[in-house]
Write a structure and sequence with these properties.
The chain is mainly alpha-helical. 68% of the residues lie in helices and 0% in strands. The protein starts with a helix and ends with a helix.
């Protein structure tokens, strides 16, 4: 929910032109027909970014939080790693939407 709602909000309310402009200028639909902003290269580039960021986040979590001790002298656990990764993913997705919406 924390990552889906900002993406849906961005997709629904990010309008470059109003409806009347699109009705008067059908040539504006060309970018969708010609796959200017969404083609194979763009898809695989974003897929690669996701793999890279996920791997970096996983290793960051496992090699820093697992070695940290709490106040009772216990080392980090998988629950702590999962909470950190979940929180980081929410922040990363929202920052990426903020950057992409400019």
């Amino acid at each position: 929910m924390f990552t889906a709602i900002p993406i849906i909000w961005f997709a629904v309310f990010d309008w470059e032109h109003d409806k009347e402009t699109f009705l008067r200028n059908p040539s504006l639909y060309r970018i969708g027909i010609e796959n200017v902003f969404f083609n194979d290269w763009v898809f695989w580039r974003w897929f690669g970014y996701a793999i890279w960021q996920g791997t970096l986040l996983l290793f960051l979590s496992f090699y820093t939080i697992d070695l940290a001790m709490n106040k009772y002298g216990k080392l980090g656990c998988l629950t702590l790693d999962g909470n950190f990764v979940f929180g980081a993913i929410v922040i990363i997705v929202n920052v990426k939407i903020l950057i992409s919406s400019y």
